[in-house]
Amino acid sequence: KYIDQLEIVQRKFLKFLEFKRCGHFPPRGMDQSMLLRQFQMPSLVDRRSYLSILFLFKVCRCMVDCPELLSQISFHVPSRAVRSPPVFHLPTPSSNVLIKTPLIQAMRLFNENCGDIDAFHLSLTQFISSLKSRYLQPM
Fold first, then answer.
1. Which terminus, N or C, of the chain has the lesser number of Cβ atoms within 10 Å?
2. Residue 90: which pLDDT band, with cuts at 50, 70 and 90?
3. What angle is formed at CA 42 by the lines to CA 36 and CA 45, rounded to 5 degrees?
4. How many CA atoms lie within 13 A of 100 on its CB side?
5. pTM of the model
6. What pLDDT score does 83 carry?
7. DSSP per residue, 64-75
8. Which of 22-26, 97-101, 106-110, 126-130 shows the lowest per-residue confidence on average (mean pLDDT)?
């Protein structure tokens, strides 16, 4: 709900950092990705995605003790061998509310961006380092 407001706060902070570093504010309309790259910061969207996928990994590996959440996760088991099937089966949404739930969003993010990571055979530190290289590297 407050994503846009948080992005505005981050942008103002980055502009302030640029002012402290150079003595002048960046020009109006400067792309935020340039400011993020300058200060080697990941975007808030990437940080949220990273934390969502990490939480999903911990729930699946029983590092978070929440059987209710674990029971809501369904794995996709293909009927025949395919090259890169999605890991999680996403339910057909009956409303926008289901699409917006954090667990469904985390499963969708994992399927879209981490299909090549073998999350079931990696340790937590290996999984974190592979996720960080995707999401938390400076732009």
1. N
2. confident
3. 110
4. 4
5. 0.79
6. 66
7. S--HHHHHH--B
8. 97-101
pLDDT at 84 over 90: no
Question: Is 116:137 a contact under the CB 8 Å cutoff?
Answer: no
* Cβ atoms 88, 64 nearer than 8 A: no
For residue 65, give both structure tokens.
């003790």
**What is the rounded distance in angstroms from the CA atom of residue 101 to the CA atom of residue 104?**
5
| Type of residue at 114 | C
The token duo for 40 is: 């080697």
Residue type, 113: N
